[in-house]
Amino acid sequence: MEAALSRARVRPAVVAVWAVLAGLVVVIVALELRDAGRAQSGAAADLRLLVPVPVDELGAIEIAEAERLHRFERDAAGAWFYHGVHAGGEATHAHTPDPALAQHIGRAVAAFARTRTEREFALERDAAAYGVATPEIVVLLYRPRQAQPLAQFAVGSVAPDTVSRYVMVVGRPIVFTIPGYQIDNLLALVQAAGAASASTAPPGGSR
Fold first, then answer.
1. In what helix (H) or strand (E) does residue 29 lie, and over which residues does it extend?
2. Residues 101 and 118: beta-carbon distance below 8 Å
3. Distance CA 128, CA 131 (A)
4. What distance in Å separates the CA atoms of residue 70 and residue 54, rounded to the nearest whole number?
5. What is the Cα–Cα distance from 207 to 200, expressed in whole angstroms?
6. Which H or E run contains 169?
7. C-alpha 25 chain-centroid distance
8. Mean pLDDT over residues 37-50, rounded?
9. Exposure winner among 42, 55, 165, 180, fewest CB in 10 A?
């Protein structure tokens, strides 16, 4: 009789333990599904990034504008500096440290690395309609210590909405729109770098 009563008491306890374990399994599965969903949504969102690598993997950026090529590089310590202006046969290499300019470059490059594409158009034959056949601005990105560009962007006209800009990834027959302020930021960076370079140039000479 006592043995039967003991077994009767044990069975509910065993059932309770299994119920708790089953609940834990359900919670774990739910958490894993949630994390997998977040990872998938994050991967999908990343497909809209214009720049193919994180900013930490960039070693240099060149901005060709008004027939001049402005180069910005990252030194061994990770600080950005203005390499100088290259126009035609000219090759001026400015390497004077400028902490304020380094911060400005870092912010501008980091912002550009976060650029997300908006609309997408097949290039087909009408590149002139987007301004990418003869781009006003060309942006080239490099990995550290690499001579060949990682990516090249032909920046075309301002879109009809006046707040977006047409951009083509060189080598791909697709035109995207991106927020126009991203290009404005790069142009402001070029102006700031030029002003800083001019202010520190020796009188009557060039560096």
1. helix 2-46
2. no
3. 5
4. 21
5. 9
6. strand 164-169
7. 39
8. 61
9. 42
28: pLDDT confidence band, cut at 50, 70 and 90?
very low
Task: Give tens-digit pLDDT for 55-100.
Answer: 999 999 999 998 899 999 999 889 999 987 755 444 445 455 688 9
pLDDT number for residue 123: 82
The encoded tokens of residue 49 equal 């990034």
User: What is residue 81's predicted lDDT score, i.e. its pLDDT?
Assistant: 93
Q: Token digits for 135?
A: 């781009």
| Residue 79 identity (one-letter amino acid) | A
Would you give the end-to-end CA distance of the chain in angstroms? Answer: 103
The confidence score (pLDDT) of residue 128 equals 84
Do the strands 68-74 and 60-65 form a parallel or antiparallel pair, or are they unpaired? antiparallel
Burial class from Cβ neighbours inside 10 Å (0-12, 13-18, 19+) for residue 182 reads: buried
Task: Give the separation between CA 14 and CA 156, rounded to whole angstroms.
Answer: 71
Please check whether residue 72 is in contact with residue 86, taking contact to mean a CB–CB distance below 8 angstroms. no
Predicted structure pTM score: 0.71
Check if the beta carbon of residue 81 is closer than 8 Å to that of residue 73.
Answer: yes
